[in-house]
Structures are given as structure tokens and as C-alpha cells.
Amino acid sequence: MKTLLLLLGTFILTISPLQAFQNIQIIPKPVLVSEKPGSFNLNENLSIYISSDDLRSEAEFLNDLLFATNWKGYPIIISDVLPKTDFISLSLSSEIDHDETYSLSVTNQGVTISGGSRAGIFFGIQSLRQLLPTEIEHTDPSLVPNNINWEIPAVEISDVPRFEYRGMHLDVARHFFPVEFVKRYIDFLAMYKYNRFHWHLTEDQGWRIEIKKYPKLTEIGGWRDSTLIGNYGTGKYDGIRYGGFYTQEEVKEIVAYAADRHITVIPEIEMPGHSSAALAAYPEFGCFDKEYSVATTWGVFEDIYCPSEATFSFLEDVLDEVIELFPSEYIHIGGDEAPKKQWEESPIAQQVIEREGLKDEHELQSYFIERIEQYLNSKGRQIIGWDEIMEGGLAPGATVMSWRGESGGIEAAKMGHDVIMTPNASNYFDHFQAEPTIEEPISIGGLTTLQDVYGYEPVPEELSEEEAKYVIGSQGNVWTEYMHSGAKVEYMAFPRAIALSEVLWSPVDQRNWELFLERLQVTFDRLDILGVNYAKHLRK
Ligand code: ACM
Questions:
Q1: Which ligand 1 atom is the nearest neighbour of the CA of 477?
Q2: Which atom number of ligand 1 is nearest to the Cα of residue 424?
Q3: Are residues 340 and 251 located together in one domain of the fold?
Q4: pLDDT digits over 466-509, tens only?
Q5: How many angstroms is it from 199 CA to the middle of ligand 1?
Q6: What's the gap between Cα 225 and its chain centre?
Q7: Domain encompassing residue 243
């Protein structure tokens, strides 16, 4: 890393950024880019070399990516013998010690990608993709113009991410998105070198993951009778039954698909609040003998799991199935927006407060979260929770996702807890991205422009260097109350997620809004070919 920084220093002195990136338009911007004379032309003699059979999946991914070139020789030969010319070489290097680091070298003879791990190689492939003509994005060869020169500029790239945790979130509960869309979303995250997909699977408005021991979670909890029309407060409903869920087979398919793209899927199973759908299916886990229903409007609801032994057994059973499906070290247990009114009124909840010597209902929430943390720890997993989990005392090993601004994250980092910054002002992609004129589609409100996202700095000034190490990364959140379709998700998420990818990956002193906007135009060309419904406010 030190050598890399030294090299970088020399590089900045000799070449101005504008010159340096004339041809190289990669997002997120690599740490070190040095353009060379010459280029490499892909032709029908190309073969992909792998230094180890472990790289076969990355080679196949690359092979699929090059499909648009539509050579006679497709699929491309994958070989363990390195030819003298016309190669793309993928090689694991024991000299590269950071897991996600890679180097990429293009000469007249071929392309060499080295990485310390399969993930590094994969990120190198994503950079190579952005060195190729944008037409490489075609998946239908009949649409590729036949005069394309598949030329790659000669270059040396050395690259390493700034943050370990680079996340995007998707709420599939307020609206449900089919497997094919979730895969497409993961494809775009991979393109911009994200490595975490936070999948928000349970909510008041729908439970979206099959749990075999509790089939009513999806039979009943997966469906609502109606949905609010227009913004909150209209009082108008569409009267249409709405829902859906992912079978465990589909979940496995998505987790494997993401893993092939070096993205870990973190499931979120909300508790103790945001649980109306679960309680509609199994009212015995609420505090009152009343009718619970799957919510048809948005907001925060009073219905909450009762902290009874029966509820803990239920949640442990659910989590047992969840951890079988998700290899992720982290399991997100929610913890946000849990009103305490029902606990104040419930004799069962009050007995637990007394039995455990707790001060109040906030401490009861902490007791609840700590029990779940202990259970997950016993299975070798760690919890992430929204910053409300700090209110009655923070569970000992919890990672805090700071969303109500940064103060929760700052406090948690000072206490020595890992933190993921996702403050709503800059990281909530359900907000408007331009002044809400008549042309902007309906949204939850707020205004978070592309420049707001690009300008976000995940490490707050209040933290010392030592404390700052606890900020492991940041994430963009896509809550879908007002996103009824995949096309709308794309409109809200892109290009904001693209701007955030650079915040997460690139050195902070290399961030430059004007140059980013230039590079963004090239990425827009790619997204056009991929048919992405991104927001075009800054399309030139
Ligand atoms: C949240 O936005 N309620 C985490």
C-alpha cells in the first residue's frame, strides 16, 4: 500500500488528471491509472488464461461479458497455458496481500489481471469491461454494429478499495420484485464493485421469505388486501390484493448468483417492530389477543413482537432457517422504529422488565436484541441493527447502521463498535433527486441530489484516527413504498448508487465532481445499451 501511495504521488506530479483520464473512464475511479502508448485489439484468436482452476468461475463470467464480440470462436477458450499473444490472463498473486486489490495491465500483446483473491480478479474484470467500447454491453449480438473495433487502450492500473463494506439495500417488502429483477440489480452492484447486498425481507406490509416451519408467514403475511394510492395521507386505497415471496430455492439461487459476483447477501429480518405481517400470520407472538393485519399503508405501526419465551423460540426457529440459506457473517435484525406503547400496556412485557431488572421499555428492547445477538453468536454469526438498537444499551458485538443522521454511528464508533454509515440526508435513494416539479415521479419526500451523494464523506470529522477505523463503510438505501416496479427502482437508484460507489471505493483526495460527471456520461452509454431506466437529469 505504501508503494502504491508513493507511486501515486509521482504520478500526480507528472500528469494532470484531465490528461490522465482522457481514455480511461472507469467508475469507481481506480487508485492509480497510468496510460501507455498503444492498445490491444481483441480478435478471434483470443484465449482466457487462468493461473488456477479456482478462477474458472471468473473466466466464465468474463467469457459471458465478451459475448457481444460474437466471434466465430465463441465461447472463448479457457486455458491453463499462457499464450504469447492474444490473451486475457487472470492470475492469483501471493504478493498482493489485500483481499480485494487487483492490478490490470494492457499491452499490445494482451491483458493481465492479477489479484490477491478471486474477488480482486473479479474487480479487475469489471474495470476491463469499462475499458472496452461501450457496445460490449450488448447481450444480443444481432444489435451490435458490425464495424466495432474491439480496442483496449494500453494502461497500467493498480487498485484497492477504500472501504471494506460497500453496500446497497433493497426493500422488497413494501413492493415485491421478482427474482429476475433482483439478479439484474445485483448485476449493476457488481458493475460498480459493491460487495454487500442488504436484502430487506420482512415488513409490516409483507413477509417475503419462505420459512418452512411457519408457512403462514408467507401464506398470510406475504399478502395485503389493498395498497395506499398516492402520498401518505390521501386515505385512498386501490382495493387490490398484493404480495409475493421468495421460496427457499429462489433465495439460494439469488445468494449463489451474488456470490459468483463477489457480493454477500445480508438478509434483514425485522424485530421487534415492523412486524405486522408476521403477527397477522401468528398473532400468538404479539402481546394482545387482537386481530393483526398486513399493513396497507406506510409508516410506523404500534404492533410489535411480545418479549415472551414463545416469541424467542419462534424467532430462533426463523433464524435457524435464515442462516442455513445465507452464509453471510452478518444477519441484520432491524431494530428501528419500534414504538413501545404495547409493551407499556402489556402485563407480559412488564413482567419481563421486572424479572430482568430493566429500567424501562428501551432497556427491554436492548434485552430483546441482546438475546437474539447471543443466539446468532452461538451460531457463529454477528448482528447488524439500525441505530435505535443503542437506545437502551448497545448489544456487545453489534454493528450499528446509522440512518438517523450520523450521531448514532459516531457514538457507536467511540464505543468501539463497527459502524456502517447510511445517513438519510445523503444515502436514502427514495428521496427526490431533483426539485419535485410536476416532472418528478412520486416519492417519499426529501431531496438528495447526485451531488449530495457524491459529496458524502462516511468518516465524520468528530472521530479520531483510531475511532475512524470503526467506520467500515457505507450503504445506499432503497425503500420502495413509492416504487411499484423495477423500472422505478432503477430510476431512483441510478445514478445515485454509481456516485456512492466512488465514495466507497476511491481515495477521498481523488474525488472530483466535474471529472466524475464526464466519466458518468460514458457509463450512461453503457446503461442505455443495458436498458436501464436511470434518472437522466445530468445526462449531457
Ligand atoms: C429506516 O429507515 N427506518 C431504517
A1: 2
A2: 2
A3: yes
A4: 999 999 999 999 999 999 999 999 999 999 999 999 999 999 99
A5: 13
A6: 30
A7: 165-530
